[in-house]
Amino acid sequence: MFRSIQWKLVSIYILLILLAMEIVGVYLLQSLEKYQVGSLARNMDTKAQLIAGFTERYLYPIPRYHEIDDKLIKELGGAEVSSIIILDESANIIFSTDEKFQRGLKLLTPEITQATFGTEARDIREEPKNSERFMYLAYPVTINGRVVGIIYLISSMKDIYSTLNDIKAILLVATLMALGIAGFLGYALSKTITGPIQEVTRQAALMAQGDFDRRIQVKSNDEIGKLTEMFNYLTTRLKETMEEISDEKEKMEAILANMADGVIALNDKSEVIHINPAAMNMLSLDRSPEGSDFSESLRKYFDVAIEDFLGEESDLRETLIKTDSLILKAIIAPLKRGSRVIGLILVLHDVTRQQRLEDMRKEFVANVSHELRTPLTTIKSYTETLLDGAMEDPEVARQFMGVVNNEADRMTRLVNDLLELSRLDNKEIRWDRRPVALNRVLLDVIAKMKVNATKKRQSLNVDIPETPCEVIADRDKIEQVFQNILSNAIKYTPEGGNISVKLELLERDVRIVFGDTGIGIPREDLPRIFERFYRVDKTRSRELGGTGLGLSIAREIVEAHGGRINIESELGKGTIVSVYLPSNSPAGRDLS
């Protein structure tokens, strides 16, 4: 019942009246209480001053306590004051109208204690026995700045709170009457609003069944009338839009049917809702799998599920699949409605020719590496023999063979790099993955490379935390990456330059930052810096012994560990290389 607008409006009216009455009632009661309490306090002040003026001659200079007139004191106190107690300067009772306070006893309360120092004090307290409130006033009697006595008045507040309770009862009855009237009027008013809305609802239900010719008679010019007009306009626009959608659907189906690329669409239940002829030809399907579960006919080609794309950071994914005769590049994208994934779109590109060319290139690199390694070993052996004095002119021969030896070393490094790249490309590396403390690996690498930096009078700034930053990695390969990057920093930084190494633990990753003040890299060369054999300055790179493969190997190793490597540089100012590896440290896991 209370789900309808009519009853919601009635409830709102009742709640508004209730809220208004409560606010007025609270404000009125608080104001009355404040006024009554204030009035009582002022009255007690006046009576305390009268009693003090009357009794000061009995207190000073010669105490004459027995001469105080009981009847007069009671008359001065009046009916509002429950008890009148007069105390000397030491808080001893010398007069009392209440039998509970016997003469000669010392009476110490917070307000009396304050009055002994010459300050008037007041307090309101509740009696534990009957929960009745009393106001207490301690008024000092002073002569020439000296306290000679204290007037202590006690007044009951029962009448005040009795009056307030009567007012509360009156307000409660008034509130109930107001709520009843508000409910009746709210029901009558809401009926005039919900009636037309119910008519719109009935017509909308007919529209949901496909009848877009519905019209509602406009009976007013208010908001309800505007709603009715807009409903009639909506039915017209919906009919036109549905016709446009139908036309667009036919166009889209024609485009998909004639595309060279394959397209497969899945719904949120992993069912095929569309597949074009190109995709069927690429996957050698003899019948359309539309309406069937994705796994029945296509799972053997694709390892994909809707659940893989449910994260907030889900994005496009690419993968290569092989059929009997083709190599296909599949681009898988989530189909979203707002932030919810409602399906997947798979686009298939035939990359058979490109992949075969890539395979040929990789095979060439592997063959060249194997072919070069044997003659290099022979050249190395003959060079060492000649350097031992086999040449007729020892000085010239030694100089010449030294150059040959250096070139042989360089070619050997090139072959080794090529072989390692080939193994990385062909997934032939056997990784020895285990928990590794990166801070210890970095310190070992820095210790090995520090001699080279010292020779060039370079300052090496290290910022590595003592707390272990652990990753799952092949220690030797990660050490190779760090040595390669740090070696480049030392090579391409002039004498007297600065090199920095910093390790940070992020939310999910460990970041290692290598910075230098070296020659830098031009902006136009940065996109190609990881290409194999690519050199920014070929002459200078060869002079320093570079092969052009170090950064390519480093990126392959880092990416094989699930990480990434970035380079930022500015010509003439230096280079920053950042390596990110997935963290295995407890701090990193907690933050993630």
Describe the structure.
With 592 residues, the chain is an alpha+beta fold. Strand 9 and strand 10 form a beta hairpin. The strands form 4 sheets. It has a 5-stranded antiparallel sheet. Strands 7-6-10-9-8 form a 5-stranded antiparallel sheet. 50% of the residues lie in helices and 21% in strands. The longest helix is centred in the first third of the chain and has 55 residues.
Brief overview:
By secondary structure, the protein is of the alpha+beta class. Helix content is 50%, strand content 21%.
Task: Map the helices and strands.
Layout: H1 5-59, H2 70-77, E1 81-88, E2 93-96, H3 110-115, E3 121-126, E4 133-143, E5 146-156, H4 158-208, H5 223-257, E6 262-267, E7 272-275, H6 277-282, H7 294-297, E8 317-322, E9 327-337, E10 340-350, H8 352-390, H9 394-425, E11 433-437, H10 438-455, E12 459-463, E13 470-474, H11 475-491, E14 498-505, E15 509-516, H12 538-543, H13 550-560, E16 564-570, E17 574-582, H14 586-591
Parallel strand pairs: 12-14
Antiparallel strand pairs: 1-2, 1-5, 3-4, 4-5, 6-7, 6-10, 8-9, 9-10, 11-13, 14-15, 15-17, 16-17
Helix pairs in contact: 1-4, 4-5, 8-9, 9-13, 10-11, 11-13
